[in-house]
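2024-03-11 09:14:02 DEBUG pipeline.ingest accepted 1 chain
2024-03-11 09:14:02 DEBUG pipeline.ingest length=331
2024-03-11 09:14:03 DEBUG pipeline.predict start
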Amino acid sequence: MSTTTFPAFIFTNDPDNPRTEVREITLDDLPTDGVLIDVEWSSVNYKDGLATSPKGKVARISPLIPGVDLAGTVVDAAGSSFAVGDKVIAHAYDIGVARHGGYARFARVPAEWIVPMPAGLDTRDAMVIGTGGFTSAESVMALLDRGLKVSDGPILVTGATGGVGSMAVSMLAQLGFEVVASSGKASAEPFLKDLGASRVIDRAELSADDPKPLGQMEFAGAVDCVGGATLANVLKRLKYGGAVAASGLTGGAGLSTTVMPFILRGVALLGIDSVQLPMAQRVEVWRRLATDLRPAGIDRIGHEIGLGDLERVLAAILRGEVTGRYVVAPR
């Protein structure tokens, strides 16, 4: 089987000629250790865009098969507790960054990085959810654990047309929250309202630098996928005792703010990490994604593409032009 060829999308970070291409490889081109998975679906995340750009400084090996998440069927359990034929999910850790990822027909993944497919999901739905939806679920669960209730008032979602944001809008709306979506895409308002947003505001309202230490109290909580000035402004507009779950930096990695929201309004900044989350918590998040946090309208959020479409979509996600989720069929 090692001589069987199959297609892979490959990024070569050559200083003189960085490039992406689809080419045929064999199993010998994959890592020698780990469970062998027949990849049925992967997806496109902002991190994948960074991993295929020299300026992103994310890829740690070259050449690299990107794709930070994947779902498929075990074809060689490699002595692990998994069995041939098991449906599984793998994402985060070093996948698609320092180890070949999901943009190929096969992938080898360490057993300790693999999640059994929860009842209620199939491989396509799992990748429509993907790392973006997983991060959304983590964010929503963090706000709920903080004590956030529907009666507390509206919840803001920034970067709402992206993978994390669109899933968060859907999840929160299904739980009964009034969701305010922030987006720079005026044409996306019908899409966001279809997902459950009650109101859509222009991202410019939150992205401008504001010297005031506090603003009007508007939101009981927030899911922030943007960072930078947007996150600073969100903190200023939270109600007393509110919280923001922060997971993104498309608006910048810096955070210029004051202690005023924290010491005068008791707000909380909740950091959300999907990369090194312990496996027991990872399994629980996926269980919730298959049950009460399963996003509505998965068919409307997911757009199917092949390996040949990846270069175009990865460039678009870095430009902030992607709405919803793109799922990749590496076959």
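2024-03-11 09:14:41 DEBUG pipeline.report The longest helix spans residues 123-145.
2024-03-11 09:14:41 DEBUG pipeline.predict end
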